[in-house]
Amino acid sequence: MRDSGRAYSSTSTLAPIVAPSSSNGQWRREQSSPGLESSWLAKAAMHLLHFLKFFKWNLKDQIVEVTKYQWHMGFSSFGGPVVQFQNFNKLFVEKYEWLSDDTYQELFAVAQALPGSASTKLLFIITILHTSLIPALVSFIYWALPGAAGMFALALGVGQIGSTLPDPVYALLSGLNAATVGVIFVAAIQLSNRSITDKLSFSLVFLGGAAGVCYTALWYFPVLMVAGGTVAVVYDLRFIQRWYARSTQKIKRRFARRRASEELEPPNSVELRSLQDDDDHVWLPEVYRNVSESASINPSRTSESGAPTVRRQPISTSTKLRASTTVQSVDYETETLPVVESTMEDEPVDASDVRAAVSDATPEIGQDQKKSYPVWLGVSVVIGFLISFVVVIVIHAVVKGLPLTFKLFANLYLAGTIIFGGGPVVIPLLRQYIVAEGWVSARDFTIGLALIQAFPGPNFNFAIYLGALTYHNGGYSSFWGAVVSFIAMYAPGMLVAGGMFTFWHKLRKYAVITSLLRGINAAAIGLVWTAIYRIWESGFLSDANPDGISLGEDPWWTAVASTAFVLGRGWSVPAPFSIFLGGLMGIIWWGVTGDS
Known about the structure:
The chain is mainly α.
């Protein structure tokens, strides 16, 4: 890439370099003036200029490449996130060779750990890493727009339906809902298997689902997820265990000193015995255990007081298992940390050992990427998003009489921010944030929920359907409701993922971050089971109960849900086929029992 003898590197941060001379062919970095080097603002302006020039020279080719390889993905991506992740690996790692498998696994971890649609975030990050921002946005349009357009068309049709429907239609919708329960049940098992790594995460999934069933409110689901993250941090970093161990050690030392003073024993032997007793009877929270070398101690290695020195031995622990949930290269079957024996004789071991172990086992974003983006840019994007989120939520909570557009945007902006675990988690949140507000009826919600499973692309497109109906029921244009919902639902995950992938490989080295995210994710997965319960309790539609009653009222719907589950779990049948079969079984039920 050259312009008047100047070229720009695409492997660092697009820093300028001078074209090679004809004599030696060596590249040299262009030197900036002292005035520019002394100003960070000037440096930022130079980086921005280099980005703009890079986009100008390569934008057309990049868009053509993205169009060539991704134009069809929004039409052909059925089967939910699990199948979509497998397709991404086959296309971008094996077929197109856009990135290595190690890089893909790292980006997969980023997409899974952050809020929003996991498949959408992963595709966006892969594309922006291979090309640049504008082609990545084009890729996002190819990916999300076909399904969004389909759900918008469905909303237009549902908006014209009257208050009552023919009996065959109610039977069809009931069959679709029953099959949806089976399909989401399969997704819940897959998500739970990926999220559960130990007893704590298992408990958080269970408690999140149970708590979601017992109560619903606008503020309730975010509180559940934050509580899950907090519990994981306290458990993984062992605050309570350390406090208990240290308190027990202090009490034992106090009694040991009292016995020593009463028995007039030498203090050195009391100190050694105390260490031995502590090692035998106190569970140590550190990665290393202090083991006395009294049996095989080197006589030359003694402390100033004459007591034998103590060395640290690595022990088996499950700290790594609890401290990380998304590192793909870590073997979760083992519970032994790859620790290195400490050379410090008396320095206590804390959570930094966990961070170091996780860091050693965590692959960084691969070296095969075409460019790296400055960390300050990613931090600025994340901070800007957080500020916008706080402003929107505060205005929504404080100001009364807000227009429908702002309230819809705020509710979906909140939902898009707190959703961890992908599309299935969005169901209970949208039901609470849309149906509970009175904007869309429970019947229309269940209709869209049943049919979204048969549409390609991400399940987040369900929000476009609800937004269009909200505007239609409020007397506004359905098109603008779909646009507002599209932006509000996708923007949080895109902004957070696009900003954090620039420094995620550094941030995830901190055990508190990985613990917090794994706790939030586990609690969010529990809400998928809540969604199954909610759909089951309102999936049986009829003229007498247009808002739905429990599918358990008729054993036939249990058979429909079980059929969809067996086909998806046991035979790996695509979700659209199971949904279609469920609707057909609903029509059969009406044919047999319609007269009654």
